[in-house]
Amino acid sequence: MQTDSLLAILGMAAVTYLTRISGPWLVRLVQGNRRVEACLSRLPGSILTALLAPLVFTVGTAEAIASGVTLLVSLRFRNMPLALAAGVGSLVLLRHFI
Amino acid sequence: MTARLSLESARQGALRTLPVALSVFAYGMVYGLLTRQAGLSMTESILSSGLVFAGSVQFVALDMWTHPLPITALIFTTFIVNLRHVLMSASLAPWMRGLPPRTTLPLLFLLVDESWAMTYGAVQRDKADIGFLLGSGLLLWAAWMGATITGRLAGAAIPDPEAFGLDFAFTAVFLSLLAGLWKGKGDIPPWLAAAVTALAVHHFLPGKWYIVAGGLAGSLTGLWGANADR
Prior knowledge:
The complex is a heterodimer. Chain A is 88% helix and 0% strand. By secondary structure, chain A is mainly alpha-helical. Chain B has eleven helices and no strands.
């Protein structure tokens, strides 16, 4: 194995790990600030929505409709395996017909 | 809040992450296959999946894997793409408060998009503790490693994930997790801000900036009516 490959992989691993452990430290830094805490409470839903938006709206019509199906089944039955099956199943069907 | 780490939650974490691990496995096989084409050795493939353990950035790195290696650019890109993990680990902080660093530091190595989202959903709704991250993350790590090696060895024998709709599994998992976070109309402003910002940034900037930008935009709506107890 070449030294530069090893260096690159170790460096990538190090900075990735750094991002993973710095969240709680950052939180301690701003503890007790109501405004910041209000923001933090909205963070998880916001990250998920941000992560999802392009996946749902920019990939294709079949994906957008299947996303709607997944969301409805999730809200109605609160059962992830079922929602997964409904989403993936409807997508396979939609790709077939669209 | 007293933070705990129980084996029961770890077991739950692994169990409930199984369907997600399946789709992670499918993508890991694709990664393994591509490492061969990008010219990585078997050792390098294994080390990258085992130590970096961040799918999206590993795929991006393969694109940049030309000798001599642009080491600085690789590391910098990795940092930028993974900045979202800062926000994710921040959101789990309340469930780790009081746990010693010798527990939380190794535990946070297991934080990836999927294990974070599953864990956040579980600790929020189902009285699970941070042990959930241990079970969920370990299973995903094992799946990612196993798939990298399998993909590399199996080569071209890999089925097309799109034929089985497996590429959509990630979207479905995240959607279902988002549905679980829904608490009422108060969630509309942050989620709307996050979605609109993410779409705009996704359109104009490459990489994963849209997750960071959207996440921040949504959370900043907390500045209005700051004592809204949610």
